[in-house]
Amino acid sequence: MRECNVEINGIPENRNENLLNIMQQLSIVVENPISSADIHVATVVKLNKDSNRPRVVILKICNSSVRDNLLASVNKFNKIHNGDKLSSMHLGIGNKRKPIFEKGNSPDDSHPVP
């Protein structure tokens, strides 16, 4: 079901990455820990292999309440840390700060979480 999907943009690519670990780290950073059992599938989508833009990660979450809580936690984190919004540095990825955006995948979630 698409209403349980979360789209994450901005995660730098790494050949040795473990998407489940990255998503669990993200959930810990925003103070809403999720387990690997909460994530059914983590899929990487890269539309243009020649682009320097990081690819999109799509998560299929076990239910919409876990998804909604995760999105709300990211939103809350970004409001509290207005000058230091969620980035790759919070996840311990790379040596450059790259913003990370999350959005739900339902009709009323058409914009990234600020």
Percent of residues in helices: 10-25%
Largest sheet: 4 strands, antiparallel
User: What structural class is derived from the secondary structure elements?
Assistant: alpha+beta
Neighbour order of strands in the largest sheet: 2-3-1-4
* Termini separation: 24 Å
Shape: globular
Q: In the CATH scheme, what's the topology name? A: Alpha-Beta Plaits
Integer average pLDDT:
85
Percent in strands: 15-25%
H/E element order:
EHEEHE
Rg of Cα set: 13 Å
The count of strands amounts to 4
Q: How many distinct helices?
A: 2
CATH architecture: 2-Layer Sandwich
At the first level of CATH, what is the class?
A: Alpha Beta
Task: Describe this structure as you would to a colleague.
This protein has 114 residues and is α+β, with helices and mostly antiparallel strands. The chain has a single domain, classed as 2-Layer Sandwich (Alpha-Beta Plaits), CATH 3.30.70. It contains 2 helices and 4 strands. A 4-stranded antiparallel beta sheet has the order 2-3-1-4, with helices on one face. The longest helix has 17 residues.
